[in-house]
Amino acid sequence: MFHKAMTVSSLPESRAAGRSAPFEAAMTSYAPLSLEQLALVRECLGAPHAYPADAEISRGENVGDHRPVLIASGWAAVTATLEDGRRQIISLLIAGDILEPLLDRQPGLSVTTLTAVTTVDASGLVGMLRDRLASDMRPLAEAWARMRQAVQARLLRQIVRLGRLSAYERTAELMVDLHARQRRCGLADEHGMPLPLTQEMLADHLGLSVVHVNRILQQLRREGLIVFRAGRIVLPDLPKLAQATRR
Amino acid sequence: MFHKAMTVSSLPESRAAGRSAPFEAAMTSYAPLSLEQLALVRECLGAPHAYPADAEISRGENVGDHRPVLIASGWAAVTATLEDGRRQIISLLIAGDILEPLLDRQPGLSVTTLTAVTTVDASGLVGMLRDRLASDMRPLAEAWARMRQAVQARLLRQIVRLGRLSAYERTAELMVDLHARQRRCGLADEHGMPLPLTQEMLADHLGLSVVHVNRILQQLRREGLIVFRAGRIVLPDLPKLAQATRR
DNA sequence: CGTTAGTTTGACCTGTATCAAAGCAGGTGG
DNA sequence: CCACCTGCTTTGATACAGGTCAAACTAACG
Fold it and tell me: How far away is chain A from the Cα of B133, in angstroms, using its nearest Cα?
């Protein structure tokens, strides 16, 4: 019915606006920031690093030199692979997301790009936030802290999803969540968003089989809760979709 | 077959040794610490706070005054409760564990004691670690960092468990994990440990139904991988149990 | 065009949930 | 000391969500 359309939805990702635009937008959404503060953020960020799709993001061999990094564009995933090939996508990373040392480099885990990705080094930013606790920088630190909390909250939510929600509820909730996250950094409009994920990736994230994910998506489509169009996913009735999240 | 025996296994919990003994043991297991360093840790810890079983650990109403806390004795759980009553125990907390602000106080989550629990305030310790970066305190900071990493790693592992392991694998892995954790702080011997959890709690943690947990436990017992005795659980063949963790 | 990666379909199987009831142990109060 | 609760575990019967296997279908791409 939507026939391989999903994979095509990744954007050209090159843009006139600064590399960190989605991140700045996200940050502002966590605490209101002045233009000066945003400029300061921009200064602190390191040079961008580009990865092709399906590559591993490894930041230094030693555990020591793992620096925090921001996803500037594209989609990536923190993935666990079991010996027998079963995979679990622990966390999806999208533009504006923080990738902290704490998260990756656990043995058995890897961070892989799902689309082409650019990252920027955030250790400068972290250092700046640690040093400068001046009152006018307070909102910055606050936004940063809230973003980290959000990362954590998502992990916990993922546990609840996998532990207690049905396939249908899980899928609906993931869509709602991805939409909210992409809205924060201006990558989604009110009813649509990019979704550059294959059904296999969705399955690996939702703890389901590919076949079942396919059937759940069909059900959601039949009910008019999601529509695939032009490589994007459209959520025509967000409230009803949010309803589908609960039993 | 073991008939309500599990619940009885919580220890008297009053002890001549200092309140923070399990925590110190755990910390040393993450980085070798001198007696002086351990003494310093002890000084930094706040006064103990006691909770009865089945109580909520809430640390201040405002998000601001959430201090990091250590579990000095007893078992607690970070729990999510859905509107319709479904529950998911996100994380089990045992003696020596760190309970960070980041973890609790997400909306919909609560931290509840499963047995009688004593906690100690760790904000002093954190402050000390932040201020004193003297070289001789380096091991302390390192141990602390590793403990935090372990907390994080467990959360990620829990996602993999729920997403990709069978009920049988999940259960076996939990036992192995709990044993390793309790060994670290000297609460378990080589083949046995306290397990003050009802099958319902296990179910809520493993994302299963009570009935199914019961059947899995029976299977593990039949296979001689676990034995319940005198309110403790015995793991007679740890290697084989670890094997049961994988498919 | 053939190849390849992704989606869709159907048939079938199984792990796990649900429901209901019974068994067991410990605590309580008469 | 017994009888009764109450909370926990165990058992059996049954239902269903979701997995597995296999094959067809579609679209993109070189």
Answer: 14
> A147, A162, A205, A245: which to substitute to probe chain B, counting the most B Cβ within 10 Å?
A162
- Which domain, by its residues, includes B91? 6-150
Report the protein residue whose CA lies nearest the C1' of nucleotide D8: B4
Same domain (yes/no): B128, B175: no
Listed in sequence order, the residues at least 6 apart from A182 whose beta carbon sits closer than 8 Å to its beta carbon are A94, A95, A188, A193, A194
Distance from CA of B17 to the nearest CA of A (A): 33
pTM score, two decimals? 0.92
Give the residue with minimal CA–C1' separation from D18.
A212
- Residue B83: how many other CB atoms lie within 10 Å: 8
Please give the pLDDT value at position A14.
37
B160 within domain boundaries: no
Residue among A106, A152, A163 whose CB faces B207 most closely: A163
| pLDDT tens, residue by residue, A22-73 | 999 999 999 999 999 999 999 999 989 999 999 999 765 544 557 889 999 9
Q: Give contacts of B148 with chain A, Cβ < 8 Å.
A: 102
Structural domain count of chain A = 2
Who contacts B21 (Cβ-Cβ below 8 Å, separation ≥6)? B15, B185, B186
d(CA A138, CA A31) in angstroms, rounded, equals: 10
Q: What would the pLDDT profile of A149-196 be if each residue is shown by its tens digit? A: 999 999 999 999 999 999 999 999 999 999 999 999 999 999 999 999
Q: How many CA atoms lie within 13 A of B227 on its CB side?
A: 10
